[in-house]
Design goal:
Layout (H helix, E strand, L loop, with lengths): L6 H7 L3 H36 L4 H16 L5 H15 L3 H12 L2 H16 L3 H50 L1 H4 L5 H26 L4
């Protein structure tokens, strides 16, 4: 409506909204992964502390689940997963390494997959599982901290992208309600439609390109 002053054009362009809904769904999924990764970092602190105190990995995971429940309660994303791993280990006598691997695959988070993989490799090779888990936890905590610092730097650029998305529409809206005669020519004739179409296309392309650039794989 802002760029074409036409209900028909708005309805036609509405057909491409599922694409942007998918992008927004990806954004929400990334936010959930970031929250789980932060909770997993805290869980690694708890696991490493428990192992350093002499507990074995299954007990350390149970302690991490209790800590997640204690500090975050029902808002915790990680607690149900850790609790399920602990419960299945006790009731079904399942392999703790396989349970961690399954969790890593379902989460889609590389750090969880790496932790599970290191535990699995250690078990197959006959190494000291607790020692390997402890060292892996320290390495992964550093990796997660580095990723958080990088994302903090990108946060400012994301704000610039948001401004870039909002400002043209805001200016156009202001001109429509305050000085419609000033922009009326852009809504009339082929030249005006072409200019508005070009502007809308360039703004959309710039925003999508910026989001793609800032979506780093750490």
């Amino acid at each position: 409506m802002l760029f074409y002053d036409s209900i028909a054009a708005g309805l036609i362009l509405l057909c491409i909204s599922p694409y942007f809904e998918d992008r927004y769904a990806e954004h929400l999924g990334d936010k959930r992964k970031d929250k789980m990764l932060t909770e997993f970092k805290d869980a690694l602190y708890s696991i490493s502390a428990s192992i350093a105190a002499g507990r074995q990995l299954p007990r350390a995971i149970e302690d991490a689940a209790v800590s997640a429940k204690l500090f975050l309660g029902d808002e915790s994303i990680l607690y149900p997963e850790l609790d399920e791993i602990s419960r299945r280990y006790k009731q079904q006598n399942a392999s703790i390494e396989q349970l961690l691997s399954d969790f890593g695959e379902r989460s889609g988070i590389d750090e969880i997959k790496l932790f599970a993989r290191s535990c699995s490799i250690c078990r197959r090779c006959g190494g000291d599982l607790e020692d390997v888990c402890l060292k892996s936890a320290y390495i992964l905590i550093e990796k997660i901290e580095y990723g958080k610092e990088t994302k903090a730097v990108l946060a400012e650029k994301k704000m610039d992208t948001l401004i870039m998305l909002i400002m043209p529409a805001a200016v156009l809206f202001f001109l429509n309600i305050s000085s419609y005669s000033y922009v009326e020519v852009l809504y009339r004739g082929f030249a005006g439609r072409a200019i508005m179409t070009t502007a809308l296309t360039l703004i959309t392309a710039a925003v999508l390109w910026s989001l793609k650039i800032m979506r780093l794989e750490l």
